[in-house]
From TrEMBL, chain A:
It comes from Dysgonomonas macrotermitis. GO terms for cellular component: plasma membrane. The chain crosses the membrane at residues 7-38, 58-76, 97-120, 126-147, 154-177, 202-224, 245-267, 287-307, 314-335. This is Iron complex transport system permease protein. It comes from the Bacteria. It is a multi-pass membrane protein. GO terms for molecular function: transmembrane transporter activity. Belongs to the binding-protein-dependent transport system permease family. FecCD subfamily. The keyword ATP-binding does not apply. Gene3D superfamilies: ABC transporter involved in vitamin B12 uptake, BtuC. It is found in: Cell membrane. CDD domains: TM_ABC_iron-siderophores_like. Keywords: Cell membrane, Membrane, Transmembrane, Transmembrane helix, Transport. One of its GO terms (biological process) is siderophore-iron import into cell. The lineage of its organism: Bacteria, Pseudomonadati, Bacteroidota, Bacteroidia, Bacteroidales.
Automatic annotation (TrEMBL), chain B:
Pfam families: ABC_tran (PF00005). This is Iron complex transport system ATP-binding protein. Residues 14-254 form the ABC transporter domain. The keyword Nucleotide-binding applies. Coiled coil: none annotated.
Length: 343, 339
């Protein structure tokens, strides 16, 4: 069998395996058989187990799966768009932009409306999503504008990092003027977690992403042409301006919504595309897009599992885990290159 | 070639009417070249020559439709270039650019396959017909061995051939190339130019390229476009341009001589010494060349104290009041003469 086919099967198996382990393992272990019964509702299991599965582990696992896919797709799109191996949702300041948007909403809501927005239910949720999208789009449009005038990829990346610092600084100022409850809510959001999406929120999140992820697959041919650079892409009939815009919007909206629900999650979007290029030995987005979708899901589930390992008791922030796993992947990929292209 | 020629008719593909090219910004307009009138024909290799910064790339970009023309019109098959959609243009004009890309994990075959993009469907899947075109392009450029290679492992010359194959796979009647021979070693330059010349003949495509390799262009091109600030663009066969003196004017610089007899350029060396050299054939020409490089003019009818006699199998150096010396290489000869 061909290499990609084998890889796809293995990754799919790993997703199923990690998914089950995510449901089974935790501070309280629930036997696989009981998990099965609870999910299908075939046999009555202890209430506490049902509660753990339905209220906590299942939404969390589903969130990790979807967020991992989405961030990886977004990362792949940005790496192709900027033709830069170091581009990624958090690296180019997109996540910072989303954070800034969310900070404005969460931190200022107390001052303006008198109540913490985080308690306001669906309205608060929508407000946070919209703010995250607006923030990330603002940063992305700045990056795109600058990328027209700046040739070097490194400079662009530095600008992304600088925008991140500026966003953090503004958030710091906002925190100073906010009431304690809001600051606490923001700090917890900012740690990043797949666990915060609870109850019905998770289904809204899943529904939105279930539309966005398939939509991003429509850009496969566009992305393949973008690999060749603007001149060749245009000569092959691509409307480069429009294509750029579509890719930006797609990857921004995906990142923004995930960030709104899970907080800024680092390194997944950067590492997974690299991992896939190495595993599948391909630059063809017809292979890479499904590959990052599945690999991203698998890796996110694995990270979530590590973060919840017995002993840590869920105390390990997800961002520590994604960084600890993602950074070595990126480093090894960059070292393994025949020609270094970062410059 | 005769049969190939009779198969096809030479026809106008690109017509340029009173074209001005350059850049227009909000504040000012920078005209690079103006009042260009010309026609480019199918089945011909046209080379655009001009010094750096004269606007060769701008002209090419304008012909590709990447850049709006300032004044005038470009017609492709009697229709204004502006009136073609991007998709239509993609099936008429293909390009080979100087911009380098850095793609990992893509085979040459896949890259050439991307040339089929204007014809493929929504997902870019290659049909058997697309694959036939790709195979044909690979055959024409003779790069069967390169097709499974990853593009980032190719040398500059190999990469250029793959890009030409991409342009062929795109199946357009017109191919524009921006300095396809830059950065290549000399044999690769010759190979690429000959390949393009043959392609123009075999496929009846219109091939237009910019280059700095004027020696090669003068030998291989069917038409030459000379571009400079003084005269604008002058067009003709290399031979016509050399007969009417345009070429020598164009490259009128110190140290370059345009040899009217060969129609080629050579480097002009001043001489300050003359030596009698007798003989003929290739050895004679080579010794003459080596001496001239060192500021010595070789001549048959000079009375110098020193003289060189070239025979079929030996070179003899005669010096006054010394025994004749047998010379085995030109380097040895130079060591004796130049003190």
């Amino acid at each position: 069998m061909r290499r990609p086919a084998i890889a796809f099967i293995l990754i799919f198996i790993s997703i199923v395996l990690f998914f089950i382990l995510n449901l089974v393992l935790g501070s309280i272990s629930i036997p696989v058989g009981s998990v099965w019964n609870i999910l299908l509702g075939t046999k009555k299991e202890p209430d506490i187990w049902e509660n753990i599965i339905w209220k906590s582990r299942f939404p969390q696992t589903l969130t990790a799966l979807i967020a991992g896919s989405g961030l990886s797709i977004s990362g792949l799109q940005m790496q192709t768009l900027f033709r830069n191996p170091l581009a990624g949702p958090s690296e180019l300041g997109i996540s910072s932009g989303a954070s800034l948007g969310v900070a404005f909403i969460i931190l200022l809501s107390g001052n303006i409306a008198g109540t913490a927005l985080i308690k306001m239910g669906l309205f608060g949720e929508i407000a946070i999503s919209v703010a995250a999208i607006a923030g990330s789009m603002a940063v992305m449009s700045i990056i795109i504008t600058i990328s027209r005038y700046v040739k070097g990829n490194v400079i662009l990346l530095i600008i992304g990092v600088m925008i991140g610092y500026i966003a953090t600084a503004i958030i710091g100022v906002l925190k100073f003027f906010s009431n304690d409850e809001d600051v606490r809510a923001y700090v917890i959001w900012g740690l990043g977690s797949f666990a915060k999406v609870s109850g019905n929120q998770v289904y809204t999140f899943v529904c939105i992403m279930a539309i966005l992820i398939p939509l991003s697959f429509f850009l496969i041919k566009t992305l393949n042409l973008m690999l060749l650079g603007e001149g060749y892409a245009r000569n092959l009939g691509l409307n480069v301006g429009r294509a750029r815009l579509y890719v930006i919007i797609c990857s921004c909206v995906i990142t923004a919504i995930i960030t709104a629900y899970c907080g800024p999650i680092v390194f997944l979007g950067l590492a997974v595309p690299h991992l896939c290029r190495t595993i599948f030995v391909s630059s063809d987005h017809r292979i890479l897009m499904p590959a990052v979708t599945l690999t991203g899901a698998s890796l996110a589930l694995f990270c979530n599992l590590v973060a919840r390992m017995p002993g840590f008791e869920g105390a390990l922030p997800i961002n520590s885990v994604t960084a600890l796993i993602g950074a070595p992947i990126v480093i090894s990929v960059l070292f393994g290159k025949r020609k270094n292209e970062i410059g | 070639m005769k049969s190939a020629k009779s198969m096809y008719k030479k026809e106008k593909t690109i017509e340029i009417k009173d074209l001005s090219i350059g850049y227009r910004s909000k504040k000012n307009t920078r005209i690079v070249a103006e009042s260009i009138i010309s026609t480019i024909y199918s089945g011909e290799l046209t080379c655009l020559l001009g010094s750096n910064g004269i606007g060769k790339s701008t002209l090419l970009r304008t012909l590709t439709g990447f850049q709006p023309q300032l004044v005038g019109d470009i017609f492709i098959y009697n229709k204004r270039i502006k009136n073609y959609s991007e998709k239509e243009l993609a099936t008429l004009v293909s390009v080979v650019l100087t911009e380098k890309f850095d793609i990992k994990n893509m085979t040459s075959y896949e890259l050439i396959g991307l040339g089929r993009s204007p014809y493929t469907g929504f997902w870019g899947k290659l049909t058997p017909d697309d694959k036939r075109h790709i195979e044909e392009a690979i055959d024409q450029v003779k790069i069967k061995d390169l097709s499974p290679r990853m593009v980032d492992t190719l040398s500059d010359g190999e990469r250029q051939k793959v890009m030409i194959a991409k342009a062929l796979a795109q199946d357009t009647p017109i191919i524009l190339l921006d300095e396809p021979t830059a950065f290549l070693d000399f044999p690769s330059k010759v190979e690429i130019m000959q390949l393009l010349h043959q392609l123009s003949r075999k496929t009846n495509k219109t091939i237009f390229l910019s280059t700095h390799d004027l020696e090669l262009a003068l030998q291989i091109a069917d038409k030459i476009w000379l571009m400079d600030t003084e005269h604008g663009i002058q067009i003709g066969t290399p031979e016509d341009l050399s007969l009417n003196g345009n070429l020598s004017n164009f490259f009128a610089r110190k140290g370059i001589v345009f040899d009217q007899n060969t129609g080629l350029f050579r480097v002009e060396n001043d001489f300050n010494r003359k030596i009698k050299v007798s003989g003929c054939g290739q050895k004679y020409a080579m010794i003459q060349k080596a001496l001239l490089r060192n500021g010595i003019l070789a001549s048959g009818d000079i009375d110098s104290g020193l003289s060189i006699d070239i025979q079929d199998n030996q070179i003899v150096l005669y010096q006054p009041e010394q025994k004749p010396i047998l010379i085995s290489s030109i380097e040895e000869l130079l060591n004796y003469i130049i003190i």
